[in-house]
Amino acid sequence: MEAMTTVTSTGGITKVNHAVFASQSNLLTESHLCFNKDQFSRTDFIVERFLNLARRRASLQQIHNDLRIYLKIVQNSMIELINDDYADFVNLSSNLVGLKETIDKLTKDIKTIWHDFCINTQTVKQSAEFVAQKTTELIACRKAQYEIRGQIFLVKSIERLADKIASCPKEIEQFWLQNFVDAVTDVVLWFGKGNVVDDKVAAAYDICLTHVRRLTEYWLIQDLKGDCRFTEQILGIVTLNKSTDSAVSCVMTEIIAECIGEPRSNLGDFLDEVYATIQKLRKDWLQKMENSGASFANISPFLDKCLLTFVVSSLDQYFGSVVVPSDNRLFHRCYKTTCDFIGNWPDAAKSCTVLRMIRNRFNLVVYFKLETQQFLSQLKDQLDPSIIKLITNEKKEEWEEKIFYDFSKLVIYTLERIWSDEVYLPTLIDKFWDFTLKVLAKYLRWIEGIKRYYWIDRKAPEEFEIWRLFCALYADCVTVDNRTFGIALSSIWPKIREHELDVTIFGQCLSVFSTKIAEKMQEFEKFIVEDAVTSVAKILDGVCGIPRQYRWTKKPAPTNISPYISETSATLKLFKDEMNHYCWSEENITSVYKQIFAESMKIFSVKAKQVLKSVEQTETSLQRFKRKSMPVNENNADSDENKIRRQLLLDLDYFKTLAASCHIEVSHIDELMLRANPSTETIQIPSLIQSVPSTLKASTANITEEV
Fold it and tell me: Which residues form the Conserved oligomeric Golgi complex subunit 2 N-terminal domain (predicted)?
């Protein structure tokens, strides 16, 4: 039978028979309890509830007995768990003791092995250190040998080069020049390899290279003047000797400068000659090298540097008054020539630095200010609306656009001038465009200033006719707007497209300007109509004077229109003639004239109603207070009120004719005519109107034709 170790309450260890507990456990487990033991594991366990449920199945005594049985079951289970855990702990402790013994043994073995290893490798370490020391000494010895050998070769190469210099022939040949190049190469290479060079050797080296520089410069000049057979080899020597700058200066002085000669008084022609000579020299050298079989690609950087550096030097030496402009036309010509020269230069990408130096020699900022400042000053001087100036005594062809104010003329001239080929430079296109917008903004500002000064603030003299001013300004706005777009289409857009730019966004700027001009023109039409109507209204005050002409004056019945009507007609004709004089379009003239006449007719109708009301009141009073009246027909023919009515009928008929010719509603005029016509004279009035003299008919016909 299997036994197990059990811990007693006294701390002793006893052997427990597993079979006994197993049989008891099985017996207890198989017994039927009067309650459900799972209820004890619930989180919401309540004693009262447990007892109530259990008493339904058993008595208190049975519940007590079953609880004691269940307690014994739980105790036995806990004892089994404790014994199992203790057994595992004892086994783990035994294993840990064995592991510690193993680790201690391994540690002792490793220390012993490492100690033995260090003792065994000490000899090897000493041998390696000895070998390393000897290797270092050997390397230092070899290095010293190399230095000495290099100095020996340097001295020999200097001697060889000195012999070559001493035996230099009058005319060099390919074979000798190649040996000379080899000698120079050896000297330069061996001198560069040496870390420490003796002072005497260094002095000899410098003397030899100085002689080499003089010889190569002489040979280079002679070869470039000749057939350019040895230029490539000579430039190789120049590069080795690091004397490129000296060679460039020599070529500039002894070849290029001699070909160009002395400067001329006309700097524009002289610059043309300089550029032409530079291009010719390059072309000639290219042709010579092609004939001799030399590679121009290897030589062109040096020759281009010589040619372009000479251009930079010439600009600094001879063209100081041009590059910082004092004469704008000369500056423009020279800069355009320079841009053409740069644009036509072969392999410009390889020489971009020097080409940029040539272009940057020209002070474009000063040129731009000189060209534009005069226009800005003139615009600023004329910006004051109180000193507005009309252009007088200027004869123009019929097809030419009319300009009536100096400021408008100056704006158009400014835009035409700065975008003309005589002034425009592609490099300054951004500045010219900004200046264009600034000029257009000043024009809008000038227009706004005139509107505020003459219309809003009313600072003009009383006798000043504002409508004439705005008629001329209206025409100028049309011309400036049209000419601005004309300049854009003919000059600005092509120049912008040369830079591969889309003109849409630039056109939007001009569209904004055109929109603002159109808004100003609408305001001017309103101002003209209001001012003209005010002038006509003063004349139409003559309607109120009709009663004074016929009351108690014994004047005969009227047969013609009133003088104020003739004056009104003449004034309306004056407005139309003035708009024609300022070259308005027929459509705009008709529109504004119609507005003026319509407003004038409204004023006339109001005043005529007042006169009729006065006449009617007078007639009523007379009929009331007269004791004895004449027959109606006789009274209507001879009374003063009837004469006033006849005069109003003539004037109303004249206005009706003009209104009909302008296609203006005349119903209110018809009402006034019916009101002014006495009931007894309904048939006689048309014949009276037909009897108006031919002069009135002619005048009416003229007005109708003009409208």
Answer: 33-106
